Amino acid sequence: MTRCVCASDPYCKIPAVIYDLYYKQEANNNSLIYNISGWIRGCLAIDSLLLSTLQCLYEDSDCFPLLLSYIRKYENSGQPSLIIQPLVYNPMSRFSPNATVSTMFKEMMIEQWNRSSSYQSFYESCAPIYCTYSKKIRTENFGGVVIKLIATTGGIVALLRIVTPYLIKFIVRLLTICKKKKQHQPRERVHRSCIDRMGIMIRKLIKLLSTKLIELNVFSTRDFGSNTDQITAKRYGRWATRLYIILFLICLIILIFYTTIQPHSLTKTFDQPSFIRYTHLKKTYGNKLKCSCSKIASTYDRFVEIKPEFHSICSSEFISEQWRIGITNGLVSNLSIYSQKDYRRFISAHIQYLQGLCRLSQQSVNNAVNESLTSLLVTTELLSAQNFYSHLNNSIEQSKSNAPILFSRLLFITRTVNHGNAFISTYGTNFEYISLVTKTMGSYAYTEGMIYDNECSCGLYSNCTTQATFVDENTSKIIPVKGLKTGCTPSESFRLSTLECFYDQSCLDLIQKYTNYHNSSTPLSTNS
Q1: Are both 293 and 257 inside the same structural domain?
Q2: Which of 458, 450, 452 is nearest to 420 (CA)?
Q3: Which position has the higher pLDDT, 3 or 504?
Q4: Mind listing the pLDDT tens digit for each residue in 442-479?
Q5: Which of 85, 106, 127 is the last residue of a domain?
Q6: Domain of 364?
Q7: 237/232 Cα distance (integer angstroms)
């Protein structure tokens, strides 16, 4: 069986087993008590969990009673026994008993989404103050104007018949006060020709019509009261009729002008214009042009494409598994033979961390891009080009600012958990054992934080670092590695390193020399 070293391969795994509590490292295979079905041991506890299944915890498993018996065997006698019930498998579950925890974790342990909705609840939440109904109507045409005039004329006639007699009485009283003597002009008889006689006939006709109009009276005597005699009432009636006609014509003219001249909103419709036609109309009408959308909500990916470009290191050979394996193959599997300060102890971890950073960065950014592109742009009207690009730029900038924040939070949680729990690095770079205490219940090893540059202690700070170096086995000469750091943990030290070495051919040659890597590596271009 090939031996797997976690320092070189982070994916090492073996079946999880139960050993006798007091077995020693030198013990033979009889110290092995039981293989736990579906459980895996990995380089880290989290790896072990993600690679394992839960089949041992189900009620029909032979593993669960045995596992429970060994747990109770070593329980503290002063504490009540744990009452643990096995899992009951539901055939309707989307996860089988053989599903790995990583598979369930990717689905966030969700069996199904249960949702309910109520339009009545939505209405009550909205609680509208009022509702309106809108309908498009056509502007007034000739028929509409005539109908409106006829309808209005009746009111004018009724009003004038009431008001006119009182106006005549008022005017007569004024004329009586201001009356002057009439001057009579003598009538002269003249001889007229035939043409003059025709003119006279026409004038007589006109005079007759005018006389009829002058004598026209649409009012009765009683309209002026019982105290007015018939002759006076007749004269008042003629005057009232003339005033009535004049006022009626004035009102009619005003009404006609008001009806025909008042501004009307004229709406011109362009059915389904093409984009070229819309552009032309927009230039012609400007902001007065309004276009209603047939769909008020559209996903951004229908009209936006976002392709992020990542740092060239993330597409280079330096993050490939082939390059990492090639670099580490030239090293001995037992890294402890190298000096504590020798960068060969950490180069594999740094490359793995760089791979993880690039992979997580790409995933986070792509998730942010997909989330942005699948979100909805909701608008009832077509936005102008200026407003569209302004809104789009704001949305993209928001996504660009959110992506690194989410990624930084993930790294912050990981770093905080690691440092807060004082996990001891397998590289022996953050804590060192200083004493061993043996007691009845077992042995305890006390640790002390490692000290780096500027008296920085890993017991207090996680970001203590020093210059990364190679230590020559023959001369014990220390050769610095450009831009790279070592410190409390490989991840923390690489965070504080630069990528200068990957741009420098001499630095890459130095790495290849001390790792016995025989293939040539091309440095990153500064123009990319």
Answers
A1: no
A2: 458
A3: 504
A4: 566 788 889 999 999 998 898 999 999 999 888 888 99
A5: 106
A6: 287-515
A7: 8
